[in-house]
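Batch job 17 of 40 flagged for manual review because the log was empty.
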Amino acid sequence: MIWSPTQISGKRPAARSYSQAAKTQKHTNVSKEHSIHRSPQYDALNGNGTDAGRFEDSLKRAGIDLLRAEIRRNASTAQLYEDAVRHETGSAISSTGALVAQSGKKTGRSPRDKRIVEEESTVDDVWWGPVNKKLSKEPFAINHQGAINYLNTRDKLYVFDGYAGWDPKYRIKVRVVCARAYHALFMNNMLIRPTQEELDSFGEPDFTIINAGQFPANSFTTGMSSSTSVAISFERKQMVILGTEYAGEMKKGVFTVMHYLMPKAGVLSLHSSCNEGPDGDVSLFFGLSGTGKTTLSADPQRLLIGDDEHVWTETGVFNIEGGCYAKTIDLSAEKEPEIFDAIRFGSVLENVIYDKHTRVVDYTDKSITENTRCAYPIEYIPNAKIPCVGNSPKNIVLLTCDAFGVLPPVAKLTPAQAMYHFISGYTAKIAGTEEGVTEPEATFSACFGQPFLVWHPVKYAQMLAQKMQENNVNVWLVNTGWSGGAYGIGKRIPLKYSRAIIDAIHSGELEKADYVNYGVFNLQIPTAVTNVPAKVLDPSQAWQGSAAEFDDTINKLAQLFQANFKEHADRATPEIITGGPAL
């Protein structure tokens, strides 16, 4: 029989306020085995109570009041559905069986509220600045205690123990402590789910996420910029979340931790998708939102290793995650059938609108947010490779969506150019996508994932260059943006041409192709690609305006590249700098 505080007392204790939780409480003397409400799987694992005792002791050391709440550790999907629908506002079950959840006021990450604790052991490692803002130890301790105090007012808490990283040599044990079933199911999908044997011997986690997102941070606490706080302490091996219920903060928090730990261990963490061909050839795809990373890496002829986060080791690559977190705005079975079909029992749909009678989701509805998403286990993708590991990459594709219309659809990069463009992480916003944007606007995100970097971008680029040299990797710049002119004049490069280019990369066609030099950016562009018109391959030939207009536009973009790179020039080698455009 599974006991809980409710069963022991005969009635459910009234929820306590934050101030009450902070006070010293007196409790009935109850044995520790009665304070944990476990899943049947967990009880079957721990009938002898050995690991149960270790688990409870670990929670006590973290400050969790076991006499107060039912603790659901690695609860079943069905149980989490029940709890969410019963107790969490806005939760429902979609017509395809997915759990619909709402994240409240915050429907996206809060990068301005992200902090890294300044600590002696890591202070010289971190790339301090707008991405990694310093927080002293005392405010972190205050937020940590506030989070624990809040969690200790809840009647029910969820703990999920899982792994980050499919390679046992490099994986870390991650524990999530939260008060929402939605958050627990989300991380059940995004982390690697342990087997019963692994859960039995899980022990102390390497990193703990304490998610008290329903409770706001005190904006008067030193270092806070609002009522939201997302803070990481590498020394304490903890992440504390206050003031946001957006589940993506946990996913990217784990990635940030891996983005620090993996380079420190001598292996390269990457914000990329990854697939594998029939012969075991692996490709990495880098790209910001709107570049086609997800679409072009989802190839029915190739196995999916992962869609977002990977590590490149001495033996190959592995996925950090156990699931996928896909955008669902305008999703359809015709455009992305694999993602559409993955939205079923066990998946979590965030902030979508659905018909109240049929429960059919309207993926075109943006009334809550354009950032509607679904989190699902990677095995829901039919051609996923399990375990999610592969050989060292043969090809690396740097995707950009150039709305100026001057970058070629494909170019082969030298090692110096690969490092330069990797550090730059360029794409472009187009008019109409954001208020005030009236012409193409260059966007740069270092290493195609600047918000998650911990080390300086040059460190990741130099590690990438070393991996490329050791494994004789081809690196390609692929532009899925505009051809014939800038946005508003030219046209978007057809998806069929971009797919044909990727096919030519994988078949080896482009490795053997003839190349010519391309102007200001000094890129090598092929003279021919199967199923792609030759005129499209050279933007200067496809340009519909005058030659002077073309020159002005390409020079403008080159100047934007150079201005952006000044931020990294202090640590970039002369070789890397030569990989950029020359005016």
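Reviewer: the log was empty due to a logging misconfiguration, but the result itself is present. The mean pLDDT is 90. Unflagging and moving on to job 18.
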